[in-house]
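Dear colleague,

Thank you for sharing your sequence with our group. We've completed the structure prediction you requested, and as agreed, I am returning the results in plain text so they can be pasted directly into your records. Please verify that the sequence below matches your submission; if there's any discrepancy, let me know and we will rerun it promptly.
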Amino acid sequence: MKTTKDKLLNLGECLIQQHGYVGFSYYQLAEQLGIKHAAIHYHFKRKEALGSAIIQQNITRAKASFEKWEPLDDWEKIDAFISIYRPSNDSKRICIIGALGADFINLPTELQADLQQLTTLLWDWLTKVLADGKANKSFYFDGDARTTAMMMCTNMMAGLQLARILGKEKFEHICQALKSSLSK
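Please find the predicted structure tokens below.
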């Protein structure tokens, strides 16, 4: 059974992905979970603390996933990378990095630093996957792995936004195009 804190983290993340950081409130959390504001403040005194905990939860999940994916071959790692974004597409949300990135200038400094940490973690992992894949001759792309990783990350984030507007099948087209861009 999920604790109130777990429910707050999960719903908070969903609301950020749907409405952005500045677009959700403790009122929405209390109303949707059927709890009093005091129960939220017991776990997260400020919205910033909840936002930071959500990002830290994503960092923990990402590290666990990267470790689990280590034995996969190069193409399986690319499929695993894409799989990070599929649940958001299925539920018409944008990814947590994209959602918080849109509000970046309005985020508290602590959240900006947390978001930079999460973004760098993902970017570094994907850069290594691409560099290894290029060295193994699994992938063929012009330029360096770091720039290609940045292009792939931004395409996934933008793909989720376009899918919200034009339909979730558009996201799959983008995924296929990204994979094709790594082939001869």
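Summary note from our side: The radius of gyration is 18 Å.

Kind regards,
the structure core
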